[in-house]
Amino acid sequence: MNWGAIEIVPTNASKPGILAGVTSIIAQAGISVRQVIMDDPEIVDDPHGFIVTEAPVPERLLPMIKQVDGVKSVVLH
Known about the structure:
By secondary structure, the chain is of the alpha+beta class. The protein has one domain (4-76): Alpha-Beta Plaits. It has 2 helices and 4 strands; from the N terminus they run βαββαβ. The protein has helices at 18-28, 62-66; strands spanning 4-10, 33-38, 49-53, 71-76. Strands 2-3-1-4 form a 4-stranded antiparallel β-sheet. It is globular, with a radius of gyration of 12 Å. The two termini are 14 Å apart.
């Protein structure tokens, strides 16, 4: 398995479109998403999103992902 994973730290986890924007960038790079886990902002004080991909997400995508409206930071795992 040569999967990848990224962690998304949102500015506001309730903002619509964050997941769509990030996964769109990943898909445009030809990488499929296997799983998405999002913390519930009503339950977790500091919610994050975790995206597991079929292949590692290249570092060159990080600047584009960071520009998605609502993304505070991104961590490659």
